[in-house]
């Protein structure tokens, strides 16, 4: 390991970045250095611009990947090399906006019917019923299920923040059946070794298989179940601020995207043309009387 890489890792640890973020940033900087065959210390603004253009034009990476690379380079030059002027004028492009895909109640029902393993169905229903990220669902412990207060405690979720989300009575009943059958001791959803928790990859594979068996046209991932949780709550009349807390969003703007997704809310919204027509009818009745 080079001294520069070691120093960057230490700088990220001092700022309490997650292990996943540290690995991602180090990998991005390594790719940048290998592209030019030089240490980042010997590269400047023109090299960064050239590399970013290479990612966009030649590699055609997604804008999310582009943003991650740019964030990695910004951290390196600002915090480790203390040469922030090199990345000062490099701006992130306006991101493409894509609305999240959401399942209807019928599609959710068909999906769960196609998940035949009781353990797998339970963890996916937990993710849907409580709006969990899959990384949060697989790392649930028995002690995180608070049946007295009817909440689930999420320990060190995204952004290293704790939060509580709802525990429905139906989910609690299902979890009790699951506990009776599986007898977990610490981790709630165990992997094959019964020592470590089930992996994210396993749950994602189950989603793909169940989606195929259910004959659903939409892609189904654990995160789409989370989107569906938020949209279904919004359509049921839950306040956006409450949904923000349940999801663990730092900004209400992030949660507000579900107002654009809900076709139910859009369908209930009356067009101004209808309001204009009603006003015309009212005016006509007043004139006749």
From TrEMBL:
Keywords noted in UniProt: DNA integration, DNA recombination, DNA-binding
Record bears the keyword DNA-binding: yes
Record-given protein name: Tyrosine recombinase XerC
Lineage: Bacteria, Pseudomonadati, Planctomycetota, Planctomycetia, Planctomycetales
GO biological process, one term: DNA integration
Segments forming domain Core-binding (CB): 1-77
An annotated Gene Ontology molecular function: DNA binding
Protein family according to the UniProt entry: Belongs to the 'phage' integrase family.
Limits of the Tyr recombinase domain: 98-271
InterPro entries: CB (IPR044068), DNA_brk_join_enz (IPR011010), Integrase-like_cat_sf (IPR013762), Integrase_catalytic (IPR002104), Integrase_recombinase_N (IPR010998), Integrase_SAM-like_N (IPR004107), Tyrosine_recombinase_XerCD (IPR050090)
Keyword DNA-binding belongs to the record: yes
């Amino acid at each position: 390991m080079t001294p520069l890489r070691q120093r960057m890792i230490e700088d990220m640890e001092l700022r309490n970045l997650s292990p996943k973020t540290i690995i991602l940033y180090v990998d991005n900087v390594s790719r940048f250095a290998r592209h030019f065959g030089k240490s980042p210390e010997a590269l400047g603004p023109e090299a960064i611009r050239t590399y970013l253009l290479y990612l966009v034009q030649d590699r055609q990476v997604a804008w999310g990947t582009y943003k991650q690379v740019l964030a990695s380079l910004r951290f390196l030059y600002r915090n480790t090399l203390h040469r922030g002027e090199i990345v000062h004028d490099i701006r992130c492009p306006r991101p493409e906006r894509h609305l999240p895909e959401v399942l209807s109640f019928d599609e959710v029902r068909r999906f769960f019917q196609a998940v035949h393993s009781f353990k797998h169905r339970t963890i996916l229903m937990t993710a849907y019923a409580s709006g969990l990220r899959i990384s949060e669902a697989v790392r649930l412990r028995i002690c995180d299920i608070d049946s007295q207060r009817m909440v689930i405690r999420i320990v060190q979720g995204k952004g290293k923040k704790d939060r509580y989300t709802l525990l429905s009575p139906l989910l609690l009943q299902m979890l009790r059946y699951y506990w009776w059958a599986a007898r977990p001791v610490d981790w709630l959803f165990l992997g094959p070794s019964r020592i470590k928790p089930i992996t994210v990859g396993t749950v994602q594979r189950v989603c793909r298989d169940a989606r195929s068996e259910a004959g659903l046209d939409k892609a189904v991932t654990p995160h789409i179940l989370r989107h569906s949780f938020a949209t279904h709550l919004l359509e049921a009349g839950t306040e956006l601020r409450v949904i923000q807390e349940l999801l663990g969003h730092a900004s209400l703007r992030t949660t507000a995207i579900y107002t654009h997704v809900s076709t139910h809310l859009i369908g209930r919204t009356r067009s101004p043309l209808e309001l204009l027509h009603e006003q015309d009818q009212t005016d006509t009745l007043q004139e006749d009387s």
